[in-house]
Specification:
The complex is a heterodimer of chains A (81) and B (468). By secondary structure, chain A is an all-alpha fold. Chain A has helices at residues 3-14, 36-50, 56-61, 65-74. Classes of the chains: A mainly alpha (81), B alpha/beta (468). The A-B interface holds A 16, 18, 28-29, 32, 35-41, 43, 55-56, 59-61, 63 and B 74, 202-208, 210-211, 227, 230-231, 234-236, 239, 385, 427-428, 431, 437-438.
Chain lengths: 81, 468
């Protein structure tokens, strides 16, 4: 599985998304599935998938599909298909 | 007597900060004009978000003796429809973007992003003269059961909360809970009655903007259900520098003892008061509180009755338990105990069913010092992220959609068991209709039952058995 596939899967599992949801459009607090409860599950999924630790500042700055990729990049994970 | 009649004394003070500052004068004027469009002793649905539109309307309705049913602004279409059919509100105050309403109803009045939809119902409501407000019991399962609250209930509970939390006009709560949820509403009521300023936001504590607002507007207090405290721990709240913060409250379910310990220590170090509280919508909101600095001595306790209320314990025969450390059903008595439930239109004219006494359904004991400790529940109820869910209601909802399931669980964990190959469909219904997360749906081979055919809930698996 590529890192992009793993990232997408963490998103679908963490936020319990249907297959037809467009991940690139997901925004914390705006997408109904991505509320604070979903956020915590998503963080845990991503940490497990990439064996990283997301600290509290990073957690509050992670608010979109894209910003998650940028965050993982900073943590040394290159998201590629 | 109605609620909020005394707010005129605060006219030029700041009532709300939400993107900009709103005075009490502006809040009352807007509230009055919405209310005048509706007319006294009508029943309306007020779809709530932490926005000035729903807050101002709520204040106006209460002052003008209009009776609102407070619902979540995102209530699923089907559930709203069901409630409207049952209670026949004359108006629905809702975001104008709600297509289900905008496509079928006319609206001639609006404020901000909200519109006052007219239903043109032919029903003339016979509302009991003391009835002030209706709240849903669990909010999630779409159960049409409402709690009937009176002006006296709201006043009594708000006054009591003001008393034990020592609220004054320098307090500045920031919203973390929905206003249609009794705990969230109790924070609003108790602070407005003292002329304080509310910071209204739909942002949650996992968002940077929430903390920026908290800092910029110098919030002094907020409340949280256990899940909020789990998040705060994960966010390393102890490292946050928020000098304005003076008071934290917790309710909506039992806080994990380790978390309680953690936050009592963190708060003490930071000079923040920390209150663990207990209550139910049936008692307006609050029934007991654990005073700040009692955490170490009385860990795990829900504390003592709020001012004006009494807590007692009853054994199975219905007798009061006098001795310490004996478990019985927790019974609360006070002016904040609701009139009772409504399940139909005609119930709205009914008087006081409870007579100030509420059987909580919680099992508890009292220690030698008079502090109460909850040990379990009589009813099949769990709390999911602060919201009460009846397992029987979830089963009924799924049955309505054609799925025969058994539900079990504990706080923040709901398990649904099915014998059919319909896990995905059940998950979809739960997501759309109950809107809760972290529900585990499992297909099992057999429902474990005892010799009398009763389900042995404890024997149900907690994890799916992996078969290959």
């Amino acid at each position: 599985m590529s890192t992009l596939e793993a990232y997408n899967m963490a998103f679908r599992n963490g936020l319990e998304l249907e297959d037809d949801v467009v991940l690139e459009e997901m925004k914390l607090g705006e997408s109904t599935e991505w509320d604070s409860i979903g956020h915590m599950t998503l963080i845990a999924e991503i940490e497990d998938a990439f064996d990283v630790y997301i600290d509290s500042d990073e957690m509050t700055e992670f608010h979109s599909y894209q910003s998650g990729i940028a965050l993982l990049q900073r943590l040394g994970v290159d998201i590629q298909s | 007597m109605t609620l909020f009649q005394t707010l005129e004394q605060y006219m030029d003070r700041e009532a709300v900060y939400a993107d900009r500052s709103y005075s009490y004068r502006e809040m009352l004027e807007v509230g009055n004009s919405i209310c005048q469009e509706v007319g006294e002793r009508s029943l309306v649905f007020c779809l709530c978000a932490n926005r000035v539109e729903s807050l101002f309307a709520y204040i106006g309705f209460l002052r003008g003796r209009v009776v609102p049913v407070l619902l979540d602004a995102d209530i699923p279409v089907e559930q709203l429809q069901k409630l409207m059919e049952r209670y026949q509100p004359t108006h629905v105050w809702a975001p104008e973007t709600r297509e289900d309403l905008a496509n079928s109803l006319d609206a001639f009045y609006g404020y901000g992003g909200y519109a006052l939809f007219e239903t043109e119902t032919s029903v003339r409501h016979q509302l009991h003269e003391e009835l002030a407000l209706l709240l849903t019991t669990s909010g999630s399962t779409g159960s049409p059961k409402l709690v009937r609250l009176t002006y006296k209930n709201l006043m009594a509970n708000a006054s009591s909360i003001i008393d034990y939390l020592d609220i004054d006009q320098t307090d500045k709560p920031i919203t973390t809970l929905p206003m249609n949820y009794s705990y969230g509403l109790s924070i609003i009521n108790s602070h407005l009655l003292k002329g304080a300023t509310l910071i209204l936001t739909d942002r949650s504590i996992v968002q940077k903007e929430f903390w920026e607002l908290c800092r910029a507007e110098q919030a002094t207090t907020f409340g949280g259900v256990p899940f909020h405290y789990e998040m705060l721990k994960r966010l390393k709240f102890e490292t946050y520098d928020l000098p304005s913060l003076k008071k934290l409250t917790q309710a909506g379910g039992k806080l994990d003892p380790k978390l309680a310990q953690h936050f009592s220590t963190v708060c003490e170090e930071k000079g923040i008061q920390f209150f663990i509280m207990y209550g139910q919508t049936e008692a307006t909101a609050r029934m007991s509180y654990l005073p700040d600095r009692m955490h170490a001595k009385k860990a795990g306790s829900i504390g003592i009755a709020i001012p004006g209320g009494t807590l007692t314990l009853r054994d199975e025969a219905g007798n009061d338990i006098k001795e310490a450390n004996v478990t019985g059903e927790l019974v609360y008595q006070g002016d904040n105990v609701s009139f009772g439930y409504a399940t139909s239109l005609t119930d709205l004219s009914k008087g006081d069913d409870n007579h100030g006494v509420l059987r909580t359904g919680d099992m508890a004991y009292r220690d030698e010092d008079g502090y109460f400790f909850i040990v379990g529940r009589i009813k099949r109820m769990i709390k999911l992220y602060g919201s009460r869910i009846s397992l029987d209601e979830v089963e009924a909802l799924l049955r309505e959609h054609g799925h025969d399931c058994v539900c079990a669980g504990e706080d923040d964990q709901l398990y649904v068991y099915t014998l059919q190959d319909d896990v995905a469909r059940i998950q979809k219904i739960i997501k759309e209709q109950i809107k809760v997360k972290g529900v585990r749906v499992m297909q099992i081979d057999e429902i474990p039952r005892n010799a009398f055919g009763k389900i042995r809930y404890a024997a149900l698996p907690k994890r799916e058995l992996v078969t290959t």
